[in-house]
Amino acid sequence: MYGQVPTPVPPRPAGPSAATITVRVLITVLVILSLGFLAWVAMLRIAIMRRAGRDWALFWGQLVLNIACVVPLEQRFAGTWMNTAGMVVLLVQMALVACYFLVVDIRHHQPAPVVIMVPSAGAPPYPYAAPGYGPPPGEVTVPHPVQGSIPRPPVQAPPPPRPAAGQGPRIDQVRAELDELSDLLRKDPGHAGEGEGGR
């Protein structure tokens, strides 16, 4: 009755859709199978998806680097160091762009985390009013919950403490019976003499 009420856990938001996963896989396969020639497609997807200036700058920089790597692969540069360097840079670019695309796309479509506010163990869920102020015992006003937090059920005030010894109705009954007994003893003549002789 007075224990902590378990808070219901809201349902987790759904993850990325099947279409999003399909596009992710297709672009990654396209970058790898083209040996980096179409790496700009992945960077263009990121720039359109996030619409940040940094992503557009990365897209244009990667596109220029891609063209610069393709030019030395022409037949006239065959057997030169430029041809080898262009192919190595193109393959490294392919691996980096594929990894970067997967990381950014997964983070972008990841559902937002659910935050559950739990009160600390030492503090009561709601403060009680000082004695003599506020509502009568048994009624405690609860402030409205903050937007985004989980509403709590109304809190009942603790039961009033039991009266100390000597103040309860049972003690009064015993006192009344003792008073009646002492009155009877005073009226009885036989006991009166015994009481005086004992003194």
Order of helices and strands: HHHHHH
Kindly estimate the percentage of residues that lie in beta strands according to DSSP: under 5%
Count of helical segments? 6
Structural class: mainly alpha
Question: What profile does the largest beta sheet have?
Answer: none
Q: What is the residue-averaged pLDDT?
A: 74
Strand tally is 0
**What distance separates the N and C termini?**
60 Å
Rg, Cα atoms, Å: 43 Å
C-alpha geometry:
rod-shaped
Helix content: 40-55%
Parts with pLDDT < 50 across at least 5 consecutive residues:
none
What do these coordinates show?
There is one protein chain. With 199 residues, this protein is mostly helical. The chain has helices at residues 18-33, 39-50, 53-70, 81-108, 169-187, 189-198. It is rod-shaped, with a radius of gyration of 43 Å. The model has no long low-confidence stretch (mean pLDDT 74).
Features:
199 residues; mainly alpha; 0% strand; rod-shaped
Question: Helices and strands in order, then pairings?
Answer:
Elements: H1 18-33, H2 39-50, H3 53-70, H4 81-108, H5 169-187, H6 189-198
Helix pairs in contact: 1-2, 1-4, 2-3, 2-4, 3-4
In short:
The protein has 199 residues and is an all-alpha fold.
